[in-house]
Amino acid sequence: MAFYNEEYSNTRKEWIRNNQDFYNSKIENAKTLEVGGLLHMYQLAIENMPVNPLSSKAGEYGKVVKKYHKLIHSTFGVKTLIAGANSLSAFFMSNEEAILFSTSWLIHGDFYENLVYQIIDSYNKPGFKKKEVLLKELKNRIIYESILLGVRTLEDWQKYHKDMNEIKGWTIIPDDFVAPTPFDPEKEACQEEPPQKEQKTEKNKEREKDIDPNTFFNMLKCDDSIKESVIKSLASEIFSNNSSDRIANIRFALERNKWIDNGISFLSFYDAFDIAIKPFTEEGFHLISRNKGSKVYHNNPTLLLHEQKGQLNKEEEQRLFEVERICKLLDDLKSNTEKAIETEAC
Asked: Is 36 exposed, middle or buried (0-12, 13-18, 19+ CB in 10 A)?
């Protein structure tokens, strides 16, 4: 077994070594999580690893991940996943702490076995009996991805299959399962990439020159002491998934939390946000089309109406879940900053 990025694997191993008591205590907590919490932890870990074939940043692979996220939502529903995200956040003081633990446990612990166990254990639980086909597809996908990243081998899963078949009578790997070739980033980098379109037009560059870098900072209605932390966290959110949906959802979450005024146009928000996050993203990073984000954001009145009437479709449920997750991130950031200030005062 060899994780696709040896250097990153070593940093996670070193972190565990330096935080062994904390890591062990969080392992005990994490093993009490139900499948919603573990799936939230899984997505958190994948999106914050170095560029990998499962990340939403990974071009064509990203489209596969989007379908996979829809599979999760259609199987478990938004309420289960929100409950999972809330149960996970109860264990950690910050999003950064959760990322450090999640990536370390996924690479060097028995995270995958715990997740697969919880998925299979859901087969006969109330509300899931009619979704066994989806659950099996999800379980097979998790196993496939563990091999792709080099965290597990087919032989590892065959052994686990044998053990669980003897103990529980469970089938871990189906007869028709085809294991992938482990991801090799160096090999991928050597492949010739098609020429990319110019990401910023001259008109866009000229528009940026006219925007005050402090515009977004001044838009935020939270305390000045946490504004930089808020911008940094939102930059991390958008860098892990630079899509029109994510930008619109951040705008929506800030409105929902009353951290920005409702009257600001989406395009004004986009331009100010684009400038504000630049110091916290990699050089050359650009947001996607402002018009695409605007189109998604202007669907909000319909979404809110459907939410009030309890008539959300799957796509709206998924979007609302994402907005609530960002709201929770902002609330936690505010709470943790206030606690830190109180501690310093004492």
From this structure: buried
With tokens 């299979």, the residue in question is: 120
Asked if residue 252 lies in contact with residue 304, where contact means CB atoms within 8 angstroms, the answer is no
CA distances to 25, 73, 174, 296, 315 from 67, in Å? 34, 10, 22, 18, 12
Q: How would residue 96 be classed by pLDDT, with cut points 50, 70 and 90?
A: confident
Q: What is the DSSP string of 112-153?
A: HHHHHHHHHHTTTSTTTGGGHHHHHHHHHHHHHHHHHTTSS-
Q: For the residues 89-94, what does the mean pLDDT come to? A: 70
Cβ 216 vs Cβ 273: under 8 Å = yes
Give the residue ranges of DSSP H helices in the chain.
6-18, 20-30, 35-47, 60-89, 95-108, 111-121, 132-148, 154-167, 185-190, 202-209, 215-219, 224-240, 244-256, 266-277, 290-297, 300-309, 314-345
Closest CA to 265 of 248, 283, 279, 288: 248
- The answer to whether 95 and 329 have CB atoms below 8 angstroms apart is yes
For residue 330 the two structure tokens come to 């902002």
First to last CA, the chain: 49
Asked whether the beta carbons of 211 and 261 are under 8 A apart, the reply is: no
| Average pLDDT value for the chain | 76
pTM of the model: 0.56
